């Protein structure tokens, strides 16, 4: 008699084979465990390291004002909302957060989702149908790709940041029935380059397309007080759908969509992640409100972020690292890839850096194309010059030892 556990192992043996293939390629990884606060220097797996892997751009993950807001909300409202938003889980603090973000972005309304991924996928899949068209940058985030597939719309992909190619695709479908959605990342997460939001807005205006921008890595980084790439290009009135995140520069958890009142009311009724996920704990909503208030009051955080990013990028390039622009798009933001190329070598480089005291995550296929594996680094406002110099020294020493430099 075959035991049930043996049957299960047989039925999932294809997963074991794929994991074995990852091990063979040298790109298999284990999760590193953070043992204290998310900061410029912290402890992973018992080792104290300079952290170049975090999206905590402005150091808000452990800010005292955000801690106070979270504790106060927990004491006043409890630890959970108890339901999805459309049944019994919409608390006054959720509405306050949406109103705060809408005012910050200068739009009519906002809806908060449980994650940035849910915001993108839920929005694209709900506002379009199989008779419609999506014109999407080839390097757009996975959540946009998944949302496009779920929508069942016809997907056309334009070459990265190639506005002329995007126009070719729009011309091809101009006479076709159905809506057209033109979509780009504001900042591309793997290369750190900025999307041509202003020029794509011109195309959307010319061809009557819906314009959508995913500003996850631009929120808190670009624009006035961190209002994002849409504000950076002065396109607030020309972008129909703005997506942002609460889990990177804002320091907490979640995503959001900004736009017209009708767009947001429609998403309340039809966006499946919104309809079928329990709403944020009140502590998270309160934390995010406090973060947006800090963005307004402390613009110097963003100035420090950019000062650190420019210095780090310059020093990496001076040392001879490929930081984009040779075989990949050039980085224009605090995201700076160190291009290695080979996946196995990249993951070995990342592991050696960790052993030497620097946390910098290796990223290989399928997240990036074959031959373009990299160690992705991210600067924050809270890194000191001493920490940056130490990280640079470690990167250079390890790279030379491994023959990368």
TrEMBL record:
Molecular function per GO: 8-amino-7-oxononanoate synthase activity; ligase activity; pyridoxal phosphate binding
EC number(s) per entry: 2.3.1.47
Positions of post-translational N6-(pyridoxal phosphate)lysine modification: 248
Keywords assigned: Acyltransferase, Biotin biosynthesis, Ligase, Pyridoxal phosphate, Transferase
Enzyme class: transferase
Xref: InterPro entries: Aminotrans_II_pyridoxalP_BS, Aminotransferase_I/II_large, AON_synthase_class-II, AONS_Archaea/Firmicutes, AONS_Archaea/Proteobacteria, PyrdxlP-dep_Trfase, PyrdxlP-dep_Trfase_major, PyrdxlP-dep_Trfase_small
Subunit-structure text: Homodimer.
Protein name per UniProt: 8-amino-7-ketopelargonate synthase
Lineage of the organism: Bacteria, Pseudomonadati, Acidobacteriota, Terriglobia, Terriglobales
């Amino acid at each position: 008699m075959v035991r049930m556990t043996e049957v299960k192992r047989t039925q999932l043996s294809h997963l074991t084979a794929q994991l074995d293939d990852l091990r063979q390629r040298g790109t298999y990884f284990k999760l590193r465990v953070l043992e204290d606060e998310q900061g410029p220097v912290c402890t992973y797996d018992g080792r104290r390291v300079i952290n170049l892997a975090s999206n905590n751009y402005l150091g808000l993950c452990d800010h005292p004002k955000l801690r106070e807001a979270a504790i106060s909300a927990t004491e006043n409202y409890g630890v959970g909302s108890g339901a999805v938003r459309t049944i019994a889980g919409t608390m006054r603090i959720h509405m306050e957060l949406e109103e705060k973000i809408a005012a910050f972005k200068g739009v009519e309304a906002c809806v908060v989702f449980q994650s940035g991924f849910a915001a993108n996928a839920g929005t694209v899949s709900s506002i379009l149908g199989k008779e419609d068209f999506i014109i999407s940058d080839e390097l757009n985030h996975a959540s946009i790709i998944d949302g496009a597939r779920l929508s069942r719309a016809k997907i056309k992909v334009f070459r990265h940041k190639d506005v002329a190619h995007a126009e070719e695709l729009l011309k091809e479908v101009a006479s076709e029935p159905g809506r057209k959605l033109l979509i780009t990342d504001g900042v591309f997460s793997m290369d750190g380059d900025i999307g041509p939001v202003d020029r794509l807005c011109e195309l959307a205006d010319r061809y009557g397309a819906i314009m959508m921008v995913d500003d996850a890595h631009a929120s808190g980084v670009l624009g006035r007080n961190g209002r994002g790439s849409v504000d950076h290009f002065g396109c607030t009135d020309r972008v129909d759908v703005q997506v942002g995140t609460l889990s990177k520069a804002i320091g907490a958890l979640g995503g959001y969509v900004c736009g017209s009142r009708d767009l947001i009311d429609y998403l309340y009724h039809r966006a499946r992640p919104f309809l079928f996920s329990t709403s944020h704990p009140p502590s998270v909503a309160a934390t995010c409100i406090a973060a947006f208030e800090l963005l307004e009051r402390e613009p110097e955080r963003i100035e420090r972020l950019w000062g650190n990013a420019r210095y780090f990028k310059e020093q990496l390039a001076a040392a001879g690292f490929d930081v984009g622009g040779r075989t990949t798009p050039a980085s224009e933001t605090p995201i700076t890839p160190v291009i290695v190329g080979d996946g196995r070598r990249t993951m070995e480089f990342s592991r050696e850096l960790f052993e030497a005291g620097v946390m910098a995550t290796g990223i290989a296929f399928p997240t990036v194309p074959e031959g373009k594996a990299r160690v992705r680094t991210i600067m924050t406002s809270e890194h000191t010059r001493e920490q940056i110099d130490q990280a640079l020294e470690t990167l250079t020493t390890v790279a030379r030892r491994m023959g990368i430099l």
